[in-house]
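Researcher: Let's do a round of design. I'm pasting the structure tokens now; please hold your answer until I've finished.
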């Protein structure tokens, strides 16, 4: 509440003391403050509707809730069914205007499936907890609050805005080319892209997101000749599958390290036999100490900052895999539905500079660039190769993807005010 009062005082401060927003922008700021309770109520409704990625009906219901907010603002809204990828689908809303097209990106789904015990919105003053409250239902509310403020100020009339709310950001459907086809097309048509995942906050300071690393899963399967353990390492049996797996993983550890690169190993199994399920989450294995293992499996992820780094590291990983121990073989497969990187660029930095101009005019602190190694992957990576992109414009909070996920409700005000002014300036060409 203190921050809301500060926002109101800002509007009344003498012009000589601070930079002043225009009268139109003051209207946007006042509208966001006046509608704060409405936005919190909307957030509560969204959070209380489970929309785990695999809860397809729940994702569609949240899409319907977003539709009910966007259509009265003059958006043409359509649902893109994604049954062929095993997911619910995406909500795409468009509002044509004379300005440059601004793409707003969020997502309807959460990591909390319908059987998770963490299901309800709870509020304690300016703090609220709930599944997906920040990632990304808070981001959806920021988008809606900003657009409503623009409508109240009259700037939405001429603005050219596209909203894409994906239904599978937390667990992309397959094939990825189909799952992200519509988002990629929207990025190619846009002049700027703004992504509304959680705001980056560190020790009270708020940061701008001009880069995110990729996220791609990989599966390593090794094989070897099996037989009595007394023959291990000899010319007939060789080293077995587990030693080959260990050689490769240790090669990754020793040979790959470089800035902005990580390659986690999340699950391992080896024996005679060993197997992994279709989803790649559960492994099974059996064996005896006196039997050389026939099969070993490891699964992990790869995170890189640029496409060049991604291609180079993948090639190096494959080279390590192909140097086999005697009488063994191995195969490394990268999943086809990962997230590409949102690489840092001068265009993205220019967008952050535009946001900082908004911050100065609204009397808010300027934002430095956030370390991309501390951010997860997001849908913005799918458009960043085609359009200047700025991420992390959603609410401030913490404990994402875990029970007790929370947000600072006052940050809804700051973020919606920033977004309304920034979208207006970008679309209509104002500096």
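Researcher: That's everything. Go ahead.
Model: Designed sequence:
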């Amino acid at each position: 509440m203190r921050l809301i009062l500060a926002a109101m005082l800002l509007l009344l401060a003498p012009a000589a003391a601070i930079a002043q927003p225009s009268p139109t922008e003051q209207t946007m700021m006042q509208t966001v403050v006046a509608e704060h309770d409405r936005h919190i109520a909307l957030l509560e409704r969204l959070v209380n509707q489970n929309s785990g990625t695999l809860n397809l009906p729940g994702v569609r219901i949240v899409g319907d809730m977003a539709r009910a907010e966007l259509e009265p603002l003059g958006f043409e809204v359509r649902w893109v069914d994604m049954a062929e990828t095993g997911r619910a689908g995406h909500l795409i809303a468009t509002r044509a205007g004379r300005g440059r097209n601004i793409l707003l990106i969020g997502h309807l789904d959460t990591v909390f499936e319908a059987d998770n015990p963490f299901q309800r919105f709870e509020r304690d003053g300016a703090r609220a907890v709930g599944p997906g409250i920040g990632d990304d239902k808070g981001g959806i509310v920021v988008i809606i609050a900003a657009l409503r403020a623009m409508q109240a100020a009259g700037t939405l009339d001429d603005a050219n805005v596209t909203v894409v709310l994906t239904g599978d950001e937390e667990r992309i459907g397959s094939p990825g080319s189909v799952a992200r086809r519509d988002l990629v097309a929207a990025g190619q048509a846009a002049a700027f892209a703004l992504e509304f995942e959680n705001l980056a906050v560190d020790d009270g300071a708020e940061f701008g997101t001009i880069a995110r690393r990729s996220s791609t899963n990989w599966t390593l399967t090794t094989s070897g000749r099996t037989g009595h353990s007394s023959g291990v390492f000899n010319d007939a049996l060789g080293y077995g599958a587990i030693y080959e797996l260990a050689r490769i993983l240790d090669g990754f550890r020793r040979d790959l390290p470089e800035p902005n690169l990580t390659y986690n190993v999340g699950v391992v199994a080896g024996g005679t036999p060993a197997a992994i399920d279709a989803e790649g989450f559960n492994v099974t294995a059996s064996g005896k100490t006196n039997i050389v293992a026939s099969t070993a499996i490891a699964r992990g992820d790869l995170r890189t900052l640029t496409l060049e780094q991604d291609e180079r590291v993948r090639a190096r990983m494959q080279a390590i895999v192909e140097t086999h121990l005697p009488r063994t073989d191995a195969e490394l497969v990268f999943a086809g539905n990962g997230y590409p990187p949102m690489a840092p660029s001068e265009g993205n930095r220019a967008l952050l500079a535009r946001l900082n101009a908004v911050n100065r005019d609204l009397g808010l602190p300027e934002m430095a660039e956030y370390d991309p190694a501390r951010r997860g992957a997001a849908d913005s990576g799918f458009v960043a190769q085609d359009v200047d992109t700025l991420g992390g414009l959603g609410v401030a909070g913490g404990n994402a993807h875990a029970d007790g996920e929370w947000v600072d409700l006052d940050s809804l005000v700051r973020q919606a005010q920033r977004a309304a002014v920034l979208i207006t300036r970008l679309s209509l060409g104002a500096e």
